[in-house]
Amino acid sequence: MNVPKANAVNRTALIGLHDGTHPTFEAVLAAHAATGIAIVTDPQICERITGQAALCTAIATAVRAFGNVVAVADGRGLMTAGPHRSHTVADVVGAEGACLASDLRDVPKHWPVLLICATEYPRRGDLSGRAVTLQVDWSGWTARVYPSARLEPGSGDSPENLLAAITAAALGVHEAFGAVQARPGSDAGYRSLNLNLWRPGTYSSDGPPLTFAPASWWLVGLGHIGQANAWVLSWLPYIDPAQISVVLQDVDKAVEANHSTGLLTPRLPALTRKTRLVAETLDALGFDTCLVERRLDQTARTAGQDTHVALLGVDNLATRRTISAVGWPLAIDAGLGSGAPDFNAIQIRRFPAARASQQVAAWAEPQSENAALPNNGAFEDLKQRDVCGAVELAGTAVGAAFVGVVAACLAIAEASRELVGGVGHDVLNLHLGSDDLSSAPTSRFVDVVPARLSAV
């Protein structure tokens, strides 16, 4: 087998190439293709927009992270919001590339099972003997995932929050993926995980209803994080989406590999510009989109009347350093780890902040270095066949769509929290593997123009 081009390789499968758990690249791909997950839901979950958002997010992120996905669901449930609006559960499952089933009988016992249920799973016996079974739920601003045998129901008194529902689904897929990876020392799949979007790092405060969100958005970079941002925005129940301005900025065309991390990228994108892929989804939902197909550089400036909140998901430091100079009233940058040990690490930075973007030490331009080849059998095998191809793959960032979704929910929560009386953060660091979270409170209040959301 020839060394494949990086733009055709699944970014999540690459984790197995970098972490040295397989002897050859062919073994990496075969191992990824053999993975699987079952996502189980009940008809009641689709009666609520939050349930629809959680189910669609779980399916969309799972098909990009696992080789096989089975959805055990009533295919007749109808989506009333989000990218799959007006389509049935069966349509969603088919469009995303999963399989629909009525029960778990044909699902291998070693596959993890993810429960997204409004009621207790009625056929409890189907779960016996399974390696990992996880339950997700959400309450107020808090997303939760835990082993299903450890029932920890959230409070029914808190209002529903779409951001928490989407986060819970992504966390559930993350935990299932971690259980399949089975890294030494990892307890993914066997622990409880909580993420409070109102006060990250705490468990005690759930916050008020999410009744407002910014009225204007500017998405810079429409790859992994940018498409996750657009996915989350597409679920926000604005009273009048036509009044919500969304600027989409990117210069790249989508390639085959982008499907593995881009929630709005089809499996074979035919070199379509990423701006147009995202616009197609948001336009269909009634948003007012504008495309900017040029790079963000040091000449970029907002006009005096611009009220957009910028969400940046870029992979170069030069663009990040320009953020403060552009003049957005609020800009939020999300960055992810790029290697196998830290692919599930997230950093959120907002501006204006105590330090301008060009003063962030971690964003100083490093000296150019060639990517070092990991010292493992799979890369040694690739090097023997094609040194240049091996080096290209060594320098290609790994990623998983479920991590981008968690980052997007954190960023959009950061942009919206102060509109309903919360407190912002200049910096927030979260590592999903270790569940370590640290943050620095905001140094200033920002004046963001709000738009009302309907109840969910």
Shape: globular
The CATH topology name of the largest domain reads: Rossmann fold
Instruction: Give the topology string: H per helix, E per strand.
Output: HHEHEHEEEEHEEEHEHEEHHEEHHHEEE
Termini, distance in Å? 51 Å
* Helicity level: 25-40%
Tell how many strands the DSSP assignment holds: 17
Spatial arrangement of strands, main beta sheet: 11-10-9-12-13-14-15-16
- Could you give a short account of the major beta sheet? 8 strands, mixed
- CATH superfamily caption of the largest domain: NAD(P)-binding Rossmann-like Domain
User: Which secondary-structure class do the elements indicate?
Assistant: alpha/beta
For the record, the CATH architecture of the largest domain stands as: 3-Layer(aba) Sandwich
Structural notes for this entry:
This protein has 456 residues and is of the alpha/beta class. The chain folds into two domains: 35-196, Rossmann fold (3-Layer(aba) Sandwich); 212-452, 3-Layer(aba) Sandwich (Rossmann fold). Helix content is 28%, strand content 19%. It is built from twelve helices and 17 strands. The chain has helices at residues 13-18, 25-34, 49-65, 89-96, 162-181, 224-235, 274-284, 317-321, 323-326, 377-385, 387-394, 401-416, and strands at residues 36-41, 68-72, 99-101, 113-116, 133-139, 142-147, 193-196, 212-214, 216-220, 245-249, 288-292, 309-312, 330-336, 345-351, 425-431, 436-441, 450-452. The protein has an eight-stranded mixed β-sheet with strand order 11-10-9-12-13-14-15-16, with helices on one face. Helix 4 (89-96) links the parallel strand 2 and strand 3. Helix 3 (49-65) packs parallel to helix 4. It is globular and about 60 Å long.
